Structures are given as structure tokens and as C-alpha cells.
Amino acid sequence: MEIPLLLVFTFACVFGACIGSFLNVCIYRLPLEESIVSPESHCRSCSTPLAWYDNIPLLTYLFRRGRCRACGAQFSSRYFFVELLTALITLMLVAQFGISVLTLGYLVFVAALVVITFVDVDYQIIPDVISLPGIAAGICFSFLFPHLTLWDSLIGAAAGAGILLAVALGYWLITKREGMGMGDVKLLAMIGAFLGVDGVFLTIFFSAFLGAAIFGPISLKTGKLVPFGIFLAAGAAVAFGWGDLIVGWCVGWAFGP
Questions:
Q1: How far apart are CA 155 and CA 160, in angstroms?
Q2: Phi, psi for 67 (deg, rounded to 5)
Q3: Residue 74 phi, psi dihedral angles, 5° rounding
Q4: Over the stretch 56-81, which tens digit does the pLDDT of each residue have?
Q5: Helix, strand, or coil here: 74?
Q6: Distance CA 93, CA 18 (A)
Q7: CA separation (Å) from 77 to 24, 58, 252?
Q8: Which DSSP symbol is given to 181?
Q9: What is the CA 136 to chain-centroid distance, rounded?
């Protein structure tokens, strides 16, 4: 019997929101080198453990207006945003690939990008505990992706690491200063493992464009540099979701029908 499409999409949103709730734990605890398993979720202001009904993704935040049940402390709106974002991403993946191993693989990839983005925003670091297993995961999932071979994945990971490593080394030789952390190198290697060498070049292009068009003015206005990992994660998301479409449009515009 065929499962109604509405039920599939509802399940995708609920599942994605639950994944987003877990990602919030990772975003907060990994940079502090805390366990993501214990202790149980609790209010950071009064240390009151959160009951199951305090931990329902999206709904609890809306019903309690983002406040702790015990002490009334305000929770960051980021918790709600990450859950909503992950729910929408999961919905889009299921709509395109159905409930499949392919969807699971891409969800692992995008979830890693979400965690890396917000950790990089807060701490200007990219956790090795995400990027290094991510490289291995991308290589393993290449056996399941119909358009990505093991060789493509390996070359993509090597190209991603090699390109940024060469840039970092060149910058150091010229300026004698560190201009790029090794976390960015490992992140682009992870992206290459999932998207292949074409995805690496698309990611670099889109990240450079987004950095110049959006984040560049922010840096000029505030006088602070935006971590490059954010550019790479955003560029990878664009390359994954719309890369082929954008490239096809650009080629059609440049060379005509």
C-alpha cells in the first residue's frame, strides 16, 4: 500500500526537527568539550533538568515563548531556528530523493554543515570531531550515491584539502602570517568527499561570491572578519542544492541555446 504523500512529508518535518534538536546540543557542547550524551538537557541559568515536554522540537519553544519553565530565563532563538532549518532541509531531501539511504547520506552531510557553521560563528573553530569523520562518511557513502564514485570522492577530498593547503602555505610564505586555519582545509576535504572534485570547485566559487557580496560588506562595516568556514559551508550548500542549475543557466546565458 502506498503511503500518502502528506504523511511522508509530515514525518520528514518531524524527524528533521528532532535532528535539529540534537544539532543544537552539538553546537553548544562540542566547542566546550562537553559530552553530547550526558548530562541530560537542562536550563543553563537555573540548572533545572528539562522534562520530555520541555524538549519537544519547535512546539515547546513556541508554547513557552522561548523561556525556561522553572526560572523564566530566555532561551536563544537559535534553538528554534536550527530545528526549523533542519526540518525544512529534511523535507526538501525527502521530496527529491524519497525516504532512502541517499536522503540519509545527504542529511548527514548538511547536518554537519549546520553544526560547523554555528560553531564557527561563535568560536571561530571547525571541530575535528565533525569534519574528520565527515570525510570518512563521504567516502563510505560514495558506494551508495549513483553519481559519485569512490574515486570521485577520494579525488574530491584530496583536491579540497590540497587547494586550501596550498593557499594557506602561499599566504604564509608571502606574509609570514597564518591566514587560514587547518579547520578550513579539513572542511573542504569533507565537502569534496561528499560532492566530488566538481563540487569542490563550485563550493570555492560560490563561497567567494557569497563572501564578497554578503559577508564582505558586513566585515567592512564592523571591522571584523567573518570566519571563512561560514563561506565554505554556505557555498557547499548552494553547490549541492543548486550548483548544476546555476552552472547550466550561466552556460546557456554565455553561449546561447
A1: 8
A2: -120, 155
A3: -80, 130
A4: 889 888 888 888 877 877 888 999 99
A5: strand
A6: 15
A7: 11, 11, 42
A8: -
A9: 16
pLDDT of residue 257: 58
Encode pLDDT of 172-214 as tens digits: 777 766 666 788 999 999 999 999 999 999 999 999 888 777 7
- Burial grade of 81 (CB within 10 A; 0-12, 13-18, 19 or more): middle
What's the CA gap between 103 and 95, in Å, rounded?
Answer: 9
Rounded CA-CA distance 80/70 in Å is 19
Q: Which DSSP symbol is given to 193?
A: H
The residue among 249 and 236 whose pLDDT is bigger is 236
For residue 92 the three cell numbers come to: 526538501
Residue 225, C-alpha cell as written in the block: 572578519
Helices (H), the chain: 5-29, 59-63, 77-97, 101-123, 128-141, 150-175, 182-210, 216-222, 228-255
Residue type, 8: V
- pLDDT 10s digits, 98-146: 888 899 999 999 999 999 999 998 888 999 999 999 999 999 999 988 8
Does residue 6 contact residue 88 with C-beta atoms inside 8 Å?
A: no
**Whole-angstrom distance, CA of residue 141 vs CA of residue 139:** 6
CB atoms under 10 Å from CB of 131, counted, come to 24
